[in-house]
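hi!! sorry for the late reply, been swamped w classes. u asked for the two structures so here they r. pasted raw, havent cleaned anything up. first the sequence of the first protein and right below it the tokens
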Amino acid sequence: MAGVMDLSEQKLRRPYPVNQLKWRPGPKGGELVYIDARDVMNRLDEVMGQNMWQSKFDWVGERMICTISCYCSLLSEWISKSDGADDSQIESAKGGCSDSFKRAGVHWGIGRYLYHPEAFDKNRNPAPWATPEGFDELMDQRSIKSAVIVGKPGEEPNTAAGDTISLNIRR
């Protein structure tokens, strides 16, 4: 069903608490919100487990490319996603590694919501869906819409007769 994510995808995409986010000046006098590379590492550790993901860095021309691979036990193989970044203006090579790592994390859904133009207002207040609690509520609503009702084949379930209604809450 469209709109329903598996549990690991939900956990990777889950917004960070607002007090964990960082801000810096952006273009045209605006501000940019971001997370640092350690936030991405911690999220991968929490969701995938410390031994179930890995990162690799390569130079392609003047650009640092990071590949984050996560082990998929369902397929019994590693799935990889990559992105790149130029050297940063602060600690150039280290910044390029960190930026490419964070960008590769976005391919896994980590912090992707930070790029949405309506995630925060001009006062840094998050949209309800851009908070951990709001995101969880949204995922619960989507899961309830995909609820599975179990009863006798071909008949409507009768809870008074002992038929079960089970909800597929994916958390």
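now the second protein. again sequence first, tokens right under
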Amino acid sequence: MSTDGTSTVASRHESRTRPHVVVAGVGSEYRRDDGAGPAVAARAVEQSPATHDIGPLVDPLDLLGRWDRADLAIVIDAVRSGAAPGTVRVLELTGTTVSSSPGVTSTHGISLSGVLRLAQAIDQAPGRVIVVGIEGDDFGRGLGLSPAVDAAIPVAVQRVVDLIKEVQVCA
């Protein structure tokens, strides 16, 4: 029994029924729009206290060991896809998207799909991975987001918060 009179077994069971959600902003604030991911992640987690911010991360490879076996991992990153700067896209990585993700790329050395394949190979992959991509404009050195990306931050934050609420309601 715990100090409040409830069974510790019941308490452990309750904590297991809540989905384990992690949020990771990938990018560097010192590369202008590349800092969009960490900015969105920090704000989204402030609004969703049952989640864990596992960033900021500089490279997708840093996800290994941090997102292991989460029920849902939401990764936010600046992307280059040819869309208008500030465009927010949401993509769930599945078996199909992991093997071929044309069009949207990361500005980092290893792709997110490559990291997910590696996590799957070592049996540490999250149950679901959703990417929230924000089309960047300026990836040069320096602080601060471009106007289009800065304007898209609240939109991306709301998408992340909605994704978190969705998985918590379904649990």
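hope this helps!! also noticed smth abt the second:
Residues 1-15, 98-108 have pLDDT under 50 and may be disordered.
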